[in-house]
Amino acid sequence: SVQKDRGEPEFITIRGAAPRLNAVALNGDRLPSVSDPTESRNDRSVTLNAVPTGLISAIEVAKSVTPDMDADAVGGSVNLTTRSPLDLDRRLLDVKAEWGRNDLNDGDIASFNLTYGDRLGAKRNLGLLIGASYQTNDRAIDETNINYGDVTPFGVTPATPYRTIQDIEYRHRLLERDRKGVNAQLDWQPS
């Protein structure tokens, strides 16, 4: 399943395990985790919201690691397989455009993906795949943060401390995310 962060799908969870306990690979190569210094999250989680969906051909999920995998994935392992230009039978042009409006903060939600691929040469043994993507997401987020603390009534410390609300914070934040990406793949198959 997918765990969301601020309304956007971002992390993969397998068998209910936390995202930091799963391994994520792209074409068999492990993806590194990237910690966001503006967030409190600083772990092994791999964010997937920057992976262009136009280049993914398959998602392989292993709920338990096999002997050929690293043994550090308690939840499981996910391998994202990209399209290969040598698998194309004909020229590929894939265009996807979306647009929406967020009425809460008058923000735009838009995405654009373009993927082009073809096999080249007299023997068609050279494959080219090019992709570009753009996404903008302006959204409003309402958060409530409640902090609790121990209270000692009348200066007497009870056997079990009393927990009460010490502070309540209400936050209204505007979040703007812009993502841009370009990628290319060139494959050659000796004849």
What are the salient characteristics of this protein?
elongated; four-stranded antiparallel sheet; 191 residues; four-stranded mixed sheet; 10 strands; mainly beta
Oligomeric state of the chains? single chain
Largest sheet: 4 strands, mixed
Number of strands: 10
Please give the share of residues in helix: under 10%
Walk me through the structure.
The protein is mostly beta strands. The chain contains no helices and ten strands. The strands form three sheets. The protein has a four-stranded mixed beta sheet with strand order 4-3-6-5, with no helix packed on it. The model has no long low-confidence stretch (mean pLDDT 83).
Topology:
Blueprint: E1 2-5, E2 8-12, E3 22-26, E4 29-30, E5 56-62, E6 76-82, E7 92-102, E8 107-120, E9 126-151, E10 162-188
Parallel strand pairs: 3-6
Antiparallel strand pairs: 1-2, 3-4, 5-6, 7-8, 8-9, 9-10
In short:
The protein is elongated. It has strands spanning 2-5, 8-12, 22-26, 29-30, 56-62, 76-82, 92-102, 107-120, 126-151, 162-188.
